[in-house]
């Protein structure tokens, strides 16, 4: 009986130690959405959402290229429509378009009227991405914050405003140093969803 008790005690001690050393990826994080998972743990986690693109000026607009930084459209305030801005650090920053965005077939449509049309595309709101950097900007260093710029679709280093709440749109940070006018600059989006 004594050997049995000692064996049971040793087994419980080992089991207790094993549970105490369980890695975080094998534990339940709790209630909530688990977002941005890649195929493997080593994949950069990203979050995308389907959005509708409407250009600021409809008649002569071209396709919006991938890697363009966009804002939520406050005119079409439906929560699914994005557009471009020429306001530096625009607080309505939405994320980066990761696939080309075609222009709408008809001007003035609502999101419901545009359902299934060509002007829907993918917006990245979190994770590692790429963006085009403003040509008139100084060199960015790794870790510098970025936001919208005076050129539609392009990013600039972010400097917060202490006097205008509409100019505090920090989108994320630069992963690498970047020179003015560079395309496909590696950045990290900070959860704009």
Write the layout of secondary structure elements.
Blueprint: H1 2-20, E1 46-53, E2 68-72, E3 81-83, E4 93-97, E5 120-131, E6 145-148, E7 155-157, E8 172-174, E9 185-189
Short synopsis of the structure:
The protein has one domain: Virus Head Decoration Protein, Chain: A (Beta Barrel).
Structure write-up:
The protein is mostly beta strands and 193 residues long. The chain has one domain (46-189): Beta Barrel (Virus Head Decoration Protein, Chain: A). It has one helix at residues 2-20, and strands spanning 46-53, 68-72, 81-83, 93-97, 120-131, 145-148, 155-157, 172-174, 185-189. The protein has a five-stranded mixed β-barrel with strand order 1-3-2-4-5. It is globular and about 90 Å long. It has one helix and nine strands.
Annotation keywords:
193 residues, globular, Virus Head Decoration Protein, Chain: A, mainly beta, single chain, 5-stranded mixed beta barrel, 10% helix
